[in-house]
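Notes from the 1:1 (GR / supervisor)

We went over the backlog. Supervisor wanted to see one worked example end to end before approving the batch request, so GR pasted a single chain during the call. The sequence is below; no edits were made to it. Supervisor asked that the structure be written out right there so they could see what the output format looks like.
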Amino acid sequence: MGLLLVGFIGGLLTGISPCIIPVLPVIFFSGGTEAARPLTETGRPLGGRRPYLVVLGLVVSFSFFTLVGSFLLSLLHLPQSTIIWIGIVFLLLIALGLLVPRFERILEKPFAWIPQRQATGDHGGFLLGIALGAVFVPCAGPVLAVVAVAGAKGSISLNTLVETLAFAIGVAIPLLIFALAGRRLAERVKAFRRHQRGIRVTAGIVMIALAVSVVPLYNVPGALLTLIPDYTSNLQAATASVGGTIGFGSAKTKTSSASASSGSTACTAEASNLVDCGTAPEFTGIDQWFNTADNKPITLKSLRGKVVLIDFWAYSCINCQRSTPHLNAWYRSYQKDGFVIVGVHAPEYAFEHVPANVLASAKQQGIKYPIALDNDFDTWTAYGNQYWPAEYLVDAKGQVRHISFGEGDYSATEKLIRTLIQQQHPGITLPHATDVADTTPTSTLTPETYLGSSRAPAASFSSPSGYQTGTATYAFPAASLALNDYAFSGAITVAGESITAAGAGSAIRIHYEASHVYLNVSGTGTLTVTDSAGTRTIAISGTPNIHDLVAPGAGYRNSTLTVTLSKGISAYSFTFG
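Structure output shown during the call:
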């Protein structure tokens, strides 16, 4: 019941978020006004099922693509954007059917099994819903983050199925209300009845516009989220924190903020005290271990009697790198007192799957505690985790007692570590608390900017030729970049995760506000950075990693920089600090 409620509320919030605005005109015209029902002799409209079939198709399609779409694409080695392209093709076919009625009848034949009271084109409504479900998948809110991982791994449980269906139904209700309102309007306004053909043509044109708007190159829904404040984001995040599925033990189903087993306290990522979040899941699906005896596997069961901090991280993540000095200090100070840290490395980029890269970076960052390579996200999934970095503090009995997401609040976490050690070893004399500077940014920062086609913010891209996959030649815009916008220049090859300099002079320009600008790169060559402080060169070689592009001591600024990549250098994302 908890999963049903959380999924349903999360779906309702997503269904009224700015992300669905491009879908509304299609729902209004093709799902609503086009479904105006013929009148009986008494003047009452006959029953019509088109709005309901549109929503039914959306629920079926959205649930399918969310649960198994990513998994199937992974098996077929196809890009994740394939789901959106499927929806775009469907939308264009339906639009053609609205413009050419004979073609619509061909499209409806496979769906003739759907009951209807009269030939009003209701079958096409179900097909429209299927198309909308496919293009709507990227709108899925935070509640479905865990479901998406489970689906991508093919480990779909009853819980994930329940939460996905509840979410889809929650999304569908606002859209159904909008469709029924459109139908009711059409039935009350005679002009709609007199111009049914015009409405169908309008619906077809609007549908073509929707298909174009969700093309990854344009990504209008993403642009809307940058232009219109997402008035539902905080509520969605709160709902996700209340009900995200997480597997703490076989006898319990806990969440990162479910009620504690005693029912008296709340286990939340914001809790500053020790609570009972349930039994910590065992490490599972680990590919390789580092920093253990002969690099052999260890288990949580073998660590009973010790206080354990499980840290989910990715080595090129700047947030993780800023957290690492604190973890290193805690491990040095409390290891002899029965404290262990296990760094579960869950890769974000392809190069982070390479064990040698992880090991090289761990040595560079001075990490001495055990490291588990969770390349298939098995342990990540067992914890229902969603963040880098994320800390799960486990007591000597194997119970999760505290959860922390992101950077900061290190003194509070250390205090809880010391408390658990003292509970396990009464009378123990601990060393003084560690003293490591907290470098968590406190100023407003430009958001992380991905450069590869799978996650690039197209709305922020400003090169005149537009963002293109494959190899193309770009030019910087003549006008200054707006804050948080970026642009390319020269010959650049765009792939799913990264861009690669395809010739001499290939460059990226970005307008940011931060003290530090980090670029995640791989390859061998140089980065030439030009900004208000002048021009400097950064040599690139060895393990793929992030590099700070801002001159030391520059301080917080609102500024623009240009980084020129030597041929063959690949860049993945900008992060800021």
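Supervisor's comment: The longest strand covers residues 486-494.
Batch request approved.
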